[in-house]
Amino acid sequence: MNRRSLLTIVSATAVSALALTACGQAGQGGATPGDGDGPVELSMWTHSAGNPAELEVYQQIIEDFNASQDEYVVVEESFPQGAYNDAIVAAAAAGDLPCLLDMDGPIVPNWAWAGYIQPLGLPTEITDALLPTAVGTYQDEIYSAGYWDAALSVFARQSVLEENDIRIPTTDEPWTIDEFDAALATLQDAGYDTPLDIGAEDTGEWWSYAYSPMLQSAGGDLVDRSTMLTADGALNGPEAVEFFTWFQDAFTAGYTSSSGTIGNEEFNNDEAALSYTGVWNAMDSLDAVGDDLLILPPPDFGQGVTIGGGSWQWGISASCDATDGARAYLEFSFADEYLTEFSDKQVVIPATASAVEASEHFSEDGALRPFVELSERFALARPETPAYPVISSTFEKAGKDIMNGADVQSTLDTAVREIDANIESNDGYGF
Amino acid sequence: MTTSTAPSTPSLPPTPPITDGEPPVAPPGRRRASASQRGERRAGLAMAAPAAILLLLFLVVPVLLAFGLSVTNARLISPNPPRFVGLDNFVRAFAADPVFVRSLINTFLFAVVVVPVQAGLGLFLAVLVNQKIRGVTAFRVIFFIPVVTSIVVVSILWRFMYREDGLVNSFIDTITFGAWQGTAWLENPSTALGAIIVLSIWQAVGFHMLIWLSGLQTIPEELYEAARMDGASPWQLFANVTWPGLRSTMVFVLVTITIAALGLFVQIDVMTQGGPVNSTTTLVYHAVRKGYREQETGYGAAISLIFFVLVLIIALVQRYLTRDKD
Hints:
The complex is a heterodimer of chains A (431) and B (326).
Chain A: H1 2-27, E1 40-46, H2 52-68, E2 72-78, H3 81-93, E3 100-104, H4 108-113, E4 117-118, H5 124-129, E5 135-138, E6 141-145, E7 148-149, E8 152-157, H6 158-163, H7 177-189, E9 196-197, H8 206-217, H9 238-252, H10 265-268, E10 274-278, H11 282-289, E11 293-296, E12 307-309, E13 312-317, H12 323-333, H13 336-346, E14 349-350, H14 353-358, H15 369-378, E15 379-381, H16 388-403, H17 408-425
Helix pairs in contact in A: 2-13, 16-17
Chain B: H1 29-69, H2 88-95, H3 98-129, H4 136-148, H5 151-161, H6 167-175, H7 192-216, H8 221-229, H9 234-245, H10 247-262, H11 266-271, H12 283-293, H13 297-321
Helix pairs in contact in B: 1-13, 3-7, 3-10, 3-12, 4-7, 7-10, 10-13, 12-13
């Protein structure tokens, strides 16, 4: 009797465990090679769960692709951006990556090095037509391609600049850093308590995306790009120290602060006169400011203006067993009409020249045309090395410490040591 | 599960004298007893099994893995297989990682303040809400609400309150009639950890109030009556009746607060990310940042292991200091 009741308990447990496992198994997608009956399923993950405009276009493309042929069926699953990279890393560890996945530009070399993704293998006429920053490469091999890029600029009100006799900069003649400082001082005197919203309240990749171009404009960099083996001299050289000293002083002088709200509210409410922000905030500001809105190049810190490049891009996982289908889908999706669609709905710069001209906001007389020129002339991709996640995290930490008053030189030296130790412990990441 | 000599556990149906598999001869009394004992033991094991398996799977195995990983250069994402590096990770932590050392200091600073303050405040609140007055349940609920609120939500709200133009500063401004201006609490290296300490105590004190309260209610009323008859003052009542009666509660409260305080993570992750200038980085936060976000699994495991050993030592010392001396 006892033995039997124990047996019942054990078998009940086993059955429920099996049932749970089965549920888990059933939940998994994944490409299964066609075995004669029905089309091959191509699993696809996107990070755009919180972005209905973007998701809508993807669903349109998938629908069109699935209808256009009967060999493959793309099955899409979307994740919130915050959890997306974790989901990919976990799926890769479990050997369960989807066939098609999107990823933020700077992480492409890391995932390529780790063997998550395989060379893209799209026809060169597609990838050549794209903006250089919309293509992800590692060791001279293309691993990803994106439909769009974003761009950074300084927003201002024409009326405010004219009132205060501040020269309106152009892409040919941007503000020098001295001019920029003078403008900030003037605006502060004119009643703007913190004239510049630099976005320092934000966290994560924004820091590297927004402030490493400033560092590059000053002559420094995140890492020595000629070898990719050390950050020494690039991140802690005299140019870098000069830039970060400016950065620290801007906070001390009250030109900018880290206590605003994420987004562009301060500028739209005319509490900040200038805002260092991206194309994604342009529509709101256009609504708030109208014709008075100026989209200006960021200041030149000495070596020419630089802005960040590289947004979300698509790749094919190394474990995909229907590579041809994945490639066919990507080829299909890079049609200009979809690029234009993304641009119109999401307000991002389309990756091909023809789609730019066809788009609503970025065409010749579109309201956001200045971004196209900024992106074409000044965009610089973040360093294409698998060490990038560590570099970015270290840069953010160093930047925040300096913002909060840490000693510039020693903070940068520590950051360099950390990055170099990491590169070394990874045997140079294949460089 | 220790009552192996009890006649039968309530969860089992009454057993017939003969178990299956035994020869149908009337067995001697002793044999019958041991058969039912064996049955109980099995039932006990079966009931302990779910917890034991889960603990094994999600606690013991990861701890053993951490031991193994901490002497390698294992990475979360890497095509290269992990290599044995001996004690390099531990040397690196203490000799070449100033953030780790800072994390160690911050973690202890946090615990040293939080443990006595939170335990004391919890006891004070428990004594307050232990009185037989009308509406005392309402106070118990009010003090307990922060505990059932997600710590992530609490942290986000307090982050707004601590801002330069936040609630805390406007409160200070109002009650001092503008004489004293607060700072941006979380952005100032000298106030950030203090700000997090205040929030953490506020959030968790309700839980320990409840534990103290349960301890208070186990003290028999007769003891108080007897002491009052002897003419004890309220303070004497507390020192000679209440406090000795709370001894085992105190041990529990101290150990749980200490362990929770040493494991400080969520508030840091949500509010300051270890900044400004490392003033709020903690051991667990540093382990997560290194081991997961920067993908150095091996080094992260080494930090976790150091943390594990430290917590173990502290818990043992506490156990020794609060042992029953008789």
